[in-house]
Amino acid sequence: MERHAPIDLRLLTHKIAALAGLVLLAGFLIARGAMRTSPQQAAAPEGVANLLEGFRHVEVASVSDAMEQLTGKKMYMTHRMRPIFPTKFAGYAVTVLLKKEANNDPNALNGMLAAIDQGQKDSVYVMVVEDGENIAGMGGLMGTAMYAREYAGAVIDGGVRDVAYLKKIGFPVYSLGIVPSTSVHHYRFGGSNIPVTCDGAEVKPGDIVTADQDGVVVVPKAEAAKVLQLAQEMDFKEHSMYAYIEKLKSIVEAVKQFGRL
Question: Would you call 106 helix, strand, or coil by DSSP?
Answer without folding.
Answer: coil
